[in-house]
Predict the structure.
Amino acid sequence: MARDILKTLKAEHDELRSLFEELNGTTDRAAKTRTELLAKIDKGLLPHAKWEESVFYPAFAERASRDGLKTHAEAIAEHHAVEHSVMPEVHDADVQTPQFAGRAKVFGEFIDHHAKEEEKTMFKMARELFSAEERAAFDEQYEAWKQSDEGMAAVAEAAQVTGAGSALRN
Ligand SMILES: [Fe+2]
Ligand SMILES: [Fe+2]
């Protein structure tokens, strides 16, 4: 099957959704499980979000219609809220508390909402705006970016901002 960035991003959304489902099912006593699940979420989400912001969203905006630009602005505002408010609050909470459970639930709801908007609106538009060849090239570029100095620096910086910190280095 041909590579397609939209399929890769959708698969990553689904992976995050299932991690949040697991996280929501934990009890306040499951400190280790919660810590591990949160680290997996951070590790999956930060490269995804940073690549979207630095490569995919700008490429999308260059070709988008007025409606596309609106959905682009919406996506950026959501990324910003998650990075600067939702995630720091989750990381600030002690994993063994109901405060953590509540904040983690909100985090998962934000991600699910955002992912749905991307899938139903932005990716749908992107399928028209980018050829199959371009979508395959994006997919390869994304894989390389994750291993690049640039990609790793962007993720490390986001890890600081969000409070994900050192959990991401493993
Ligand atoms: Fe996004
Ligand atoms: Fe996404």
Summary: The chain has a mean pLDDT of 96. Residues 5-163 form one domain. The chain has one domain: 5-163.
